[in-house]
């Protein structure tokens, strides 16, 4: 047992309002630079939809992530030889047009234009060439356009559904859609790191953050292909790959990452998970349907004395174990089983988990009018609605459980039970029969349901973000005396990320 | 005298500059130690130009190197007339591919606005130098037939004498001026390595074949 700590995340999709505040906070801090304008380390997509870059989930096109072939796991881009063989030209690299060509506007002409007959206009200007541009697309071009024949109809997750299913799905999408905020998943079995010919991408041992060493990166761009989530971006100005750094400079000073901190819907949770690094290979080799459970299995109980001892033996500090015990992520992912990884079938073991949204489930019910479902039998009507909602379930299973509908259904049963339980609490103040049946059906106790409600609906800042003390001074003390370092650190000698040939 | 400067002093100077400046750039500007890819900005023309260019030029360069390093092996390889003709024809075909793909590289940088925006002066110098070199090489191969043979009695002994630090230029001075220019062009390119994107030649990531897929780095050595 080799216990390592991973700073992990949960996004509660029921609470996401799709405001893009997270994206903008990230953009302002990290990617508002030449070469990085087109990058959105954090982006928010409308689902069903095609996403950013367009159809990133279609791995037949982009060849990201891992593939299990005759029992052996290999990079879908044909492994090491595939990466080296295509080193002169990467046929699976998205082009800028798959993202979008970034632009700004000629604001100056609004005030500087010479006097004339016409109003001056601020034309769009490409941020690559500096020349006028005919805008074709943007990073969230299909925002709120679920139910669109152009965007939603081309969602790769609809693949394998019959025409009839698709038609029904389309009817649902006209009523309801949901948002999918995405950042780097800081995977345990990262495709980007495995694909890097230079070995420049690594996971930090202390906190599991995946980073690109900019001095080691030689710009071969295989990571962009290797990451199935397309969350590594190539900077065309510096010739280096860049990605979400989980705001580690903020984490190291005890702050939540900018996208978490700024989240208006308070959908984001951050905390430590302890996992068994020795069992990664085992967890990524199981059948598709078992992937979610296998990933949960390698996440270890931070209260288990054996786990604590193993963690200490592997150099995990006490403060990290303490943070793991308070982790909201552990509760959502392991204890309650409410949060699922996005596309586990890519087999990278993503460490960002999603509580799937309720909306599409209830939307099917709204065919009879918006509001609460009424079931003929009368008992546990919400569950009946769930059983009828095979179609959205299938879609959610494609997103969050590698097609295993049981996993998604189990989550929904719990989410529904918590609602039924809370309604009983609010209306009668007691646990009525319906609530009891709902809780039993979902396998929850009233205490757990209450705890889920508390952490979902009214958590404080400190409950949502349990940032472990990633004390820089402790990390550097083996290399330099922290007190000396303190007097030397600061801005120091800095070089522009500029280059010639 | 001019020949001594061109075929003794210049090659040594080029190699020394290449080695010293490559090491210096690695130590001082490691961030820039690669070729600035523009594939993200344009990948249509590049797919034709880059693959064709790299595979053809790598084979051609290896042939030049093999003949210089192991002239015996190369002579045995050429053997009789049929094999010689086959190798010459292959070389000329690859040379033609190199010329055309380099021309496409240049056209791409002129024609595509996005790629032009990331093209530096160093890139233009390099592109022109490379085009000139492959065009000269192709003409030499075409006009002065059986280069695979006479290379063994001209360039090979000259290069070998340079390596032995006992420069002998008698074998190269009587050659036609175009051939001499091609020789010099080779060393111009060597000298350009540390100053241009050519530096990516020395970053071939061969260690990727055996390194582990997962890399974990600890800030602090664990107890």
Annotated CATH topology of chain B:
Fumarate Reductase Cytochrome B subunit
**Content-based structural category of chain A:** alpha+beta
Q: What is the highest CATH level, the class of chain B? A: Mainly Alpha
Largest sheet of chain B: none
What is the strand tally of chain B?
Answer: 1
Q: Please indicate the percent range of residues of chain B in DSSP E strands (runs of 2 or more).
A: under 5%
Q: At the third CATH level, what is the topology name of the domain at 1-99 and 143-355 and 445-482 in chain A?
A: Alpha-Beta Plaits
CATH C-level class of the domain at 1-99 and 143-355 and 445-482 in chain A is Alpha Beta
Global Rg of chain B: 20 Å
Q: CATH architecture of chain B, please? A: Up-down Bundle
Strand content of chain A: 5-15%
Largest interface: A-B, 61 and 54 residues
- What is the chain-wise order of helices and strands of chain B? HHHHHHHHHE
Q: Give the tally of structural domains of chain B.
A: 1
In the CATH hierarchy, what is the superfamily of chain B? Transmembrane di-heme cytochromes, Chain C
Query: Major sheet of chain A, described briefly?
Result: 5 strands, mixed
Give a description of the structure:
The complex is a heterodimer of chains A (501) and B (223). A five-stranded mixed sheet of chain A has the order 13-12-1-15-14, with helices on both faces. Chain A has a two-stranded antiparallel ribbon with strand order 2-7. Chain A has a domain at 1-99 and 143-355 and 445-482: Alpha-Beta Plaits, CATH 3.30.70. Chain A is an alpha+beta fold. The two termini of chain A are 48 Å apart. In chain A, a hairpin with a 2-residue loop joins strand 3 and strand 4. Chain A is built from 24 helices and 15 strands. By secondary structure, chain B is mainly alpha-helical. Chain B has a single domain, classed as Fumarate Reductase Cytochrome B subunit, CATH 1.20.950.20. In chain B, helix 1 packs parallel to helix 9, helix 2 (44-69) packs antiparallel against helix 4 and helix 4 (81-111) packs antiparallel against helix 6 (121-143). The relative contact order of chain B is 0.15. The mean pLDDT of chain B is 92. At the A-B interface, helix 3, strand 8 and helix 23 of A face helix 2, helix 5, helix 6 and strand 1 of B. Strand 8 of chain A pairs parallel with strand 1 of chain B, so a sheet runs across the interface.
């Amino acid at each position: 047992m080799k216990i390592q700590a991973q700073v992990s995340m949960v996004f509660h999709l029921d609470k996401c309002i799709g405001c893009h505040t997270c994206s903008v906070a990230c953009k302002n801090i990290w990617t508002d630079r030449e070469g990085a304008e087109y990058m959105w380390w954090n982006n928010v997509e409308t689902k069903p939809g095609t996403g950013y870059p367009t159809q990133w989930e279609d791995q037949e096109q982009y060849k990201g992530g891992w593939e299990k072939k005759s029992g052996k796991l290999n990079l879908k881009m044909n492994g090491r030889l595939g990466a080296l063989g295509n080193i002169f030209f990467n046929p699976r690299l998205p082009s800028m047009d798959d993202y979008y060509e970034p632009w700004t506007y000629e604001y100056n002409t609004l005030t500087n234009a010479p006097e004339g007959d016409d109003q001056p206009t601020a034309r769009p200007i490409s941020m690559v060439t500096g020349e006028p541009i005919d805008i074709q697309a943007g990073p969230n071009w299909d925002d709120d356009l679920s139910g669109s024949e152009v965007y939603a109809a081309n969602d790769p997750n609809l693949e394998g559904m019959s025409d009839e299913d698709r038609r029904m799905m389309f009817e649902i999408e006209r009523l309801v859609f949901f948002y999918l905020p995405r950042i780097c998943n800081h995977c345990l079995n990262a495709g980007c790191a495995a694909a890097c010919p230079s070995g420049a991408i690594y996971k930090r041992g202390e906190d599991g953050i995946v980073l690109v060493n900019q001095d080691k990166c030689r710009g071969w761009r295989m990571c962009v292909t290797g990451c199935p989530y397309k969350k590594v971006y190539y900077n065309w100005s510096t010739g280096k790959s860049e990605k979400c750094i989980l705001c580690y400079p903020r984490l190291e000073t005890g702050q939540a990452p900018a996208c978490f901190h700024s989240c208006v819907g308070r959908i984001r949770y951050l905390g430590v998970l302890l996992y068994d690094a020795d069992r990664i290979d085992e967890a990524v080799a199981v059948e598709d349907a078992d992937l979610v459970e296998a990933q949960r299995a390698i996440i270890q109980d931070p209260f288990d004395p054996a786990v604590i001892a193993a963690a200490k033996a592997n150099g995990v500090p006490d403060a990290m174990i303490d943070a793991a015990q308070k982790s909201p992520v552990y509760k959502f992912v392991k204890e309650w089983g409410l949060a699922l990884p996005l596309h586990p079938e890519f087999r990278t073991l993503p460490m960002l988990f999603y509580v799937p949204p309720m909306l599409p489930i209830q939307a099917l019910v709204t065919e009879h009018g918006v509001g609460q479902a009424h079931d003929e039998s009368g008992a546990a009507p919400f569950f009946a609605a769930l059983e009828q909602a095979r179609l959205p379930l299938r879609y959610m299973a494609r997103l969050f459980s590698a097609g295993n509908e049981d996993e998604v259904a189990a989550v929904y049963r719990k989410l529904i039970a918590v609602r039924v339980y809370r309604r009983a609490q609010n209306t009668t103040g007691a646990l009525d029969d319906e609530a009891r049946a709902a809780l039993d059906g979902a396998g929850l106790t009233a205490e757990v349901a209450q705890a889920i409600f508390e952490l979902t609906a009214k958590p404080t800042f400190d409950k949502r973000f349990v940032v472990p003390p990633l004390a820089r001074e402790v990390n550097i003390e083996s290399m330099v005396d922290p007190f000396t370092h303190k007097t030397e650190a600061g801005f120091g000698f800095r070089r522009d990320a500029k280059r010639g040939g | 005298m001019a020949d001594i400067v061109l075929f003794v002093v210049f090659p040594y100077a080029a190699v020394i500059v290449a080695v010293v400046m490559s090491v210096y750039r690695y130590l001082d500007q490691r961030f820039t130690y690669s070729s600035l890819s523009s594939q993200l900005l344009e990948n249509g023309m590049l797919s034709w130009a880059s693959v064709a260019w790299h595979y053809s030029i790598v084979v051609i360069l290896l042939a030049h190197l093999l003949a210089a390093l192991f002239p015996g092996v190369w002579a045995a390889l050429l053997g009789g007339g049929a094999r010689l003709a086959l190798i010459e024809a292959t070389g000329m075909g690859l040379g033609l591919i190199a010329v055309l793909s380099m021309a496409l590289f240049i056209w791409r940088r002129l024609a595509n606005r996005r790629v032009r925006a990331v093209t530096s002066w160093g890139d233009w110098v390099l592109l022109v130098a490379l085009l000139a070199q492959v065009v000269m090489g192709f003409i030499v191969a075409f006009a002065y037939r059986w280069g695979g043979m006479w290379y063994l009695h001209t360039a090979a002994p000259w290069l070998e004498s340079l390596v032995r630090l006992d420069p002998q230029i008698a074998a190269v001075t009587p050659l036609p001026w175009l051939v001499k220019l091609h020789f010099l062009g080779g060393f111009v390119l060597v000298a350009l390595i540390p100053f241009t994107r050519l530096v990516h030649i020395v970053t071939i990531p061969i260690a990727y074949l055996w390194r582990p897929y997962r890399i974990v780095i600890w800030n602090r050595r664990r107890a």
